[in-house]
Amino acid sequence: MTIEEFQLLDSPVHHWSAVQKSLWYDKKGDWKTAHDLIDQLDDLEAAHVHAYLHRKEGDLWNARYWYNRAHQPVYAGDLDAEWKELFRLYF
Question: What is the pTM of this model?
Answer without folding.
Answer: 0.95
